[in-house]
Amino acid sequence: MRTIPRLLAACLLAMLANTAAAQYDAGAPSATPSTPTATDEARLNETNAERAESQPGNNAPFWRGVRESGEDPGYSSLPGAEKGVLIQEFVQYPGSRFTTAGEAWRQVRNNWIIPYGGALLLIVVVAIGLFYVAKGAIGLHGKETGRVIERFTYFERAAHWTNAIAFVCLAISGIVMAFGKFFLLPIMGGTLFGWLTYALKNLHNFAGPVFAVSLTVVFLTFLRSNWVRREDITWLKKGGGMLSGKEVPSGRFNAGEKLVFWGGVLFLGLIVVGSGLVLDKLIPGMAYTRGDMQIANMVHGVASVAMMCVFLGHIYIGTLGMKGAYKAMRTGYVDETWAREHHEYWYDDIKAGKIPAQRSANSPADGKPQAAV
């Protein structure tokens, strides 16, 4: 009778031992690494919907597709040149790290264009102010004769002032949009500053095409008088007489004005206008991707700052820097003494009859052309 209980106890102990051994084997690492099976390969290539079923909560493929959409665009039923691209490809612009295009643009703008562009504008303004305090305005050495010469026709002045007004609108609005948060936002507050920048942004967009058209008219109008001549080299070597106080002879426009014409109006003008038209989306046939707009924005910012620096010098000479220069562009006429002292070769050509002293129908005084001699 004692044999049966002993057999039952032995069987129970054997079952418990087998169960413990099976659990230990299941938890112990395999002696040899397992090779991927067909099922494992299928899981690596699962769609997001399939991954949601087989591995709930594991959305790594989705975010991998988002991160790499700049290289391999995903699918989107929406229209657009960059549909399926949520994060741009990796690039490296001058002055940026190798990163996504949007971040690279932000680094160039915030770390280079804004701080150094603003500093350059301030340096030019301060330099002009110091020069004016030290030298004062350029005046006449002789007495005015009362006889006038027509320097600018009505059409020339209209083209110039249209372009000048458009430029001032663009410059002020651009400065506020780029640098305003540093010196206006703390004073005005967010609401008023937001409305101001919104209004100036729209003014900037509409003044841009006006500036482009008027700049073209200005270039064609004054092209003939701005061809480089031999005396321009002499003018540049002597710095135009700005430091010596003795005027260097020149034609209708001196070498400094020609530098502004070719460098500011033509070269920088083409870059500013071209990039601005891209930002306004006025160039036909362009896709206007984010990358296109970012590059256009950087080019536009650099060229605009350079153009403002050049034109600040032009504005200074045309207003405070030289007596009679502003009156010439306002009325169109200058005194003979002014023409002889500031543009001697131009005055000599008028005396020799090569250039008419009066090109418009009526003179400012009595309706008849004024003689140059």
Give a quick set of tags describing it.
single chain; 373 residues; mainly alpha; two-stranded antiparallel sheet; 14 helices; 3% strand; disordered C terminus
Task: Please bin the fraction of helical residues.
Answer: 55-70%
- What are the segments in which pLDDT stays under 50 over at least 5 consecutive residues? 365-373
Radius of gyration: 37 Å
Mean pLDDT: 85
Rough outline: elongated
| Helical/strand content category | mainly alpha
> How many β-strand stretches?
4
Biggest sheet statistics: 2 strands, antiparallel
The total count of helices amounts to 14
Span between termini? 153 Å
* Proportion in β-strands: under 5%
* Strand line-up of the largest beta sheet: 1-2
Following the backbone from N to C, one meets helices and strands in this order, namely HHHHEEHEHHHHHHHEHH
What would you note in describing this structure?
63% of the residues lie in helices and 3% in strands. With 373 residues, the protein is an all-alpha fold. A two-stranded antiparallel ribbon has the order 1-2. It has a two-stranded antiparallel sheet with strand order 3-4. A hairpin with a 7-residue loop joins strand 1 and strand 2 (99-100). The radius of gyration is 37 Å and the shape is elongated. The termini are far apart. Residues 365-373 have low confidence and may be disordered.
